[in-house]
Request: fold
Amino acid sequence: MNKEQAHIFFPHSSEDDLDNLWEQRLFEQKQFFLTRPPIRKVWEGKLNRLAQQHQAYLTLTEQTMVDAPPLDITPKQHEFPDDFIAAFHAFHTLRNQHKSKVLKAQNLHDLNNSVHQWLNTEGQFAKHWSHPASEEDQIEVVRGKEPDPMELLKELKKTVKVIDTTSLNVLKENYNNLSESVKKEVKRLTLLAKD
Reply:
């Protein structure tokens, strides 16, 4: 990338401190990941744009890319329990750990690594809940609109009383008897599992 191209990817004014500007842009992206629902295509697009900005920043400051170790994108396997309340809690514990790693990331490599590990966990959880029959339901869902976790947990606890078990497999077998909010979440996760 030459300096002319770098100005396109890393717009700035002549009085800007480029080091501070890069830190600010890295911080803004971390905030994005911490406040938006994890959608693989959207998040990977953000990481790609940030990588271009980083390359432009290095070009403009006449620095060379430091050889970083390869990304550790081998998915860590998470065995979510069949008990859907326990699975919900296990998932949110893992999600909080991922958020903490994103928050602590001090450079693009660490952020990239943290985000990819997080996306892998999200994908595994979505597959755990995936129920193909939910796709035939006409209920409207938006992949990027997550329910409030506490409201969903309340609905899941009500579901236990309806189906008389915490088994996720039984929950899926009783899909048509679920509340609208639980149906929506099952369908949303099913659609996300395909991404």
